[in-house]
Structures are given as structure tokens and as C-alpha cells.
Amino acid sequence: KRKTRRFDPSRTWQSFRDAKVINPFAEYQWISQPYPEHNMPRIASDAKPHKSIGAVSHCNEQGWWHVIDAKGRDVGKLAAFVARLLQGKHRADYIPERIVGDSVIVVNAINVFFPGHTWDTKIYRFYRNRFTDPRGPKVITATRLMMINPSIILSRAVKGMLPKNVLRPNWLRRFYCYPGAIHPHWGIPQAVVPIEKRPESVPQAFSVAMAPGGVTMPARVGAGWPGDAE
Question: What is the arrangement of strands in the sheet containing 55-60, beginning at the earlier edge strand?
Fold first, then answer.
């Protein structure tokens, strides 16, 4: 009798990096990520300290702009929120059949969040007909798509959240997605800003001074008394 090695599903490679024991009662069998930690973008050692303000809105002659930091944000929830801004459903003058929405800029798209093993199990289909390629649709995982273009994950999610009509291309023209932390739009504030250092000695806002009538009362530093001639 030929001896064969028994197949143990709990010892198989669950991800492209590590093998873990299967727990049938767990919500997710393993936790995956698009890149290893040593391949993720890091802050330069000589860079000035920065902080993220989450989101910022700006209005100019072209309308309202919303800059959103996507670091650590869930892809589905963020895409639904961006789609609502693009359609203008948050505005009082919202009209379903017109383009009344705002422009949206998303930065740090490379740091979006997928729960559990979604990076390894979620697939994207790029359909091809038999005239272009007889092998059928191209099917790739979210990890592979993130390696090709870090911005396309969130862009396709926003596209899927918008209504499938003739207005969708016009909404998508107002959506800008960048994998880095800085966007190139001139005159529009950034969502990641440098940290301002506070002065070491803060001058006192009030001081005790003698009023012209001989009454002691607090007065602002550098401000004249009411009624004084300028």
C-alpha cells in the first residue's frame, strides 16, 4: 500500500506570507495587508513633523472642494461618503438630474483599510471579449491591483457607489485620488499640514494698570484706555 501524506487544511498557506491554523468560529481566518511593513511608505528622518487634520473644505470660484485624508479609513464607508459629496446630496439646492455636487480630493489612498483577509480574497474582474482576448475576463485580487495602482482601489469603489447613468462620468471628473499625502492642486489647502511650534514664552494677555482716575483695573497689553486720544 502506498503511503500518502494526509492533507491537513489547517496547515495550508492561508495567505501569501504566512500559514495559520483555521478557527471555524473566527470572523476572519487571517489578517492580510497589501504590502509588507518594510515596503510601506515611511516618513523621512529629516522631514519636518506633520499632522493630519482629517478633512478640510475650501471654496473658490470653481465651487467647493473637500480634501480628505484616507489613512486608516474603510474603503466602503469612505467611498459612500465621497459619492454623496460628488452628487451634492448634502446641499440644499440638490437636484437629482443636474450636476450640483462638490469636488473631492482624497490623499493617502495607499493607506486605506480592508478588514480581515479582504486583501487576499476580494477580486476584481476586467471583462474582455473574445475578439480582444480569448481567455476571458482578467481576474486579479485587491492586493495585486493595489500593487499596480494604489489609487484604483478607492476609485473603483467610488465609481460603484455612484448611480449608473449618464451623469456618472461628470461626477467622476470632479474626483481626484492620490496615493501620497500631498495633492498637486494649487491654491487648495492640504489635509496633512506641518506642526506649528508654540513659542517658549507666551506673553500675558492682561496686566494690572492704573486708570487715569486712580482706580486699579485690568487692561489688555498694548491697548489704550477707553476715551484716550489716539
Answer: 55-60, 63-69, 103-107, 175-177
Q: How far, in Å, CA of 160 to CA of 162, rounded? A: 6
Length of the chain: 230
Q: What is the pLDDT of residues 127-171, one digit of tens each?
A: 887 777 888 888 999 999 999 999 999 999 999 999 999 999 999
Range 191-206 average pLDDT: 75
State how far the Cα of 109 lies from the Cα of 152, in Å rounded to an integer.
Answer: 9
pTM for the full predicted model: 0.74
The DSSP secondary structure of 114-140, one letter per residue, reads --TTHHHH-EEEE---TTT-TT--EEE
Q: What is the C-alpha to C-alpha distance for residues 130 and 81, in angstroms, rounded to an integer?
A: 37
Query: 10 Å Cβ neighbour count for 52?
Result: 15
Long-range contacts formed by 73-76: CB under 8 A, 24+ apart:
73/112, 73/113, 74/112, 74/113, 74/114, 74/115, 75/112, 75/113, 75/114, 75/153, 75/154, 75/157, 76/157
Strands (E), the chain: 50-52, 55-60, 63-69, 103-107, 123-126, 138-141, 175-177, 192-194, 206-210, 216-220
User: Residue 117 in contact with residue 15, Cβ under 8 Å?
Assistant: yes
How many C-beta neighbours within 10 Å does residue 106 have? 27
pLDDT digits (tens, 9 = 90+) for 27-85: 887 788 888 888 888 888 888 888 999 999 999 999 999 999 999 999 999 999 999 99
How far is residue 120's CA from residue 35's CA, in Å, rounded to a whole number?
11
